[in-house]
Amino acid sequence: MTRNANIIKKESADTEHKADYLRRITIFAPSKRIDMDLPKNPMMLLSVLNQKLRDFYPSLHELCDDLGLSEKDLITLMSSYGFMYNENTRQFR
Fold this sequence. Notes:
The chain has 93 residues and is mainly alpha-helical. The protein folds into 2 domains: 1-32; 37-93, no CATH class. It has helices spanning 2-27, 42-55, 60-67, 71-80, and strands at residues 85-86, 91-92.
């Protein structure tokens, strides 16, 4: 009986983990307005922005518009960390 209870508990935990994973995927869908805190760490911020530009947005303008950010302020912030935006590659480097 205990073994079956453990199996059910494990399956329940796996299901909860999958549901949590799917929620996280949904949160990053560009068609949904999200209010999120961007990472404070410059390297993490670089990674998040480049991933969003690569996977979800055709331009920096659309990313900023969807996230409610000022494009100018974001470029200024990233340049203060030493990263410049390249429109051809749609990446900060």
